């Protein structure tokens, strides 16, 4: 068993094309003995955003702080703390912070996707 407070551990800037003001913290990963899924915490600064992208796997998102929009293709859907979001496989999406405080959300993905998306130094 692993127990980690969400405020523990270091966040790593997300350095990809089409990203601004975004960092990620690995909370649970394959390295912790989780065989199927990884849990990550993203923090997007005011005015920041994740890439406008799609991938062949689903992921689940839970907003823990702030507000913003998630683009579903090019259509913005408002999101705020307490919202749960399902991004279906191959659905084009992007998270944008439209508020004045950091937008923080948990993101759960299959381990294979987590490992392919982040280099080893981000998988702590």
From TrEMBL:
Domain called Cupin type-2: residue spans:
42-108
Q: Name one GO molecular function term.
A: metal ion binding
Q: Which residues cross the membrane?
A: none
Gene3D superfamilies listed in its UniProt record = Jelly Rolls
Q: Which CDD domains did the record assign?
A: cupin_TM1459-like
Q: Which UniProt keywords apply?
A: Metal-binding
**InterPro entries per UniProt:** Cupin_2 (IPR013096), GPI/OXD (IPR051610), RmlC-like_jellyroll (IPR014710), RmlC_Cupin_sf (IPR011051)
UniProt name for this protein: Cupin
**Which species is this UniProt entry from?**
Blastopirellula marina
């Amino acid at each position: 068993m692993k127990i980690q407070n969400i405020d523990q551990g270091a966040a790593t800037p997300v350095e990809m094309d089409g990203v601004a003001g975004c960092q990620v913290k690995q909370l649970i990963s394959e390295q912790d003995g989780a065989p199927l899924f990884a849990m990550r915490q993203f923090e997007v600064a005011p005015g920041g955003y994740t890439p406008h992208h799609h991938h062949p796997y689903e992921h689940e998102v839970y907003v823990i702080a702030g507000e913003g929009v998630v683009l579903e293709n090019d259509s913005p859907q408002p999101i705020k703390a307490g919202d749960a979001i399902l991004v279906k496989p191959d659905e084009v999406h992007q998270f944008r912070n439209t508020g004045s405080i950091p937008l923080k959300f948990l993101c759960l993905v299959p381990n294979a996707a987590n490992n392919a998306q982040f280099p080893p130094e981000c998988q702590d």
